[in-house]
Amino acid sequence: QVQLVESGGGLVQPGGSLRLSCATSGFTFNRYSMRWYRQAPGKERELVAHITSTSDTTTYADSVKGRFTISRDNAKNTVHLQMNSLKPEDTAVYYCNARRGVSNVWGQGTQVTVSS
């Protein structure tokens, strides 16, 4: 059974940091590119960060460049999102996504709230 389980969300003050993790199972992780998306209330889901299967390329939304870092551990079938200098506008549900060809798998999401 294919599973993506996000963790690490929570409440943090502006300027703080969080590290999200996505533990995966049920598929060949090292053949899939991985993405983090987020969806704020009343807004469409947006792509935050992407990493290729071999970690040779990473891309970021302009709004998070220089603050967020995506990484993966193919030995542990896990992808992370390190989020620094968090802003209130980063508040959203963050989703992990695995993609290869027509295969497109989502996690259940983890809430990140940035507020003083």
Structure, described:
The protein is mostly beta strands. 0% of the residues lie in helices and 53% in strands. The protein contains no helices and 11 strands. Strands 2, 4, 5, 6, 9, 10 and 11 form a 7-stranded mixed sheet that branches. A 4-stranded antiparallel sheet has the order 1-3-8-7, with no helix packed on it. Strand 5 (46-51) and strand 6 (58-60) form a beta hairpin. It is globular. 29% of the residues are buried.
Output the helix-strand order: EEEEEEEEEEE
Could you tell me the radius of gyration in angstroms? Answer: 13 Å
Main β sheet profile: 7 strands, mixed
Shape, per Cα inertia axes: globular
Helical segment count? 0
Poorly predicted tracts of residues: none
Derived structural class:
mainly beta
What is the strand content? over 45%
Averaged pLDDT:
96
Cα distance spanning the termini = 40 Å
Write a brief caption for the model.
The chain has 116 residues and is mainly β. It contains no helices and eleven strands.
Question: Could you outline the blueprint of secondary structure elements for this entry?
Answer:
Layout: E1 3-7, E2 10-12, E3 18-25, E4 33-39, E5 46-51, E6 58-60, E7 68-73, E8 78-83, E9 92-100, E10 103-106, E11 110-114
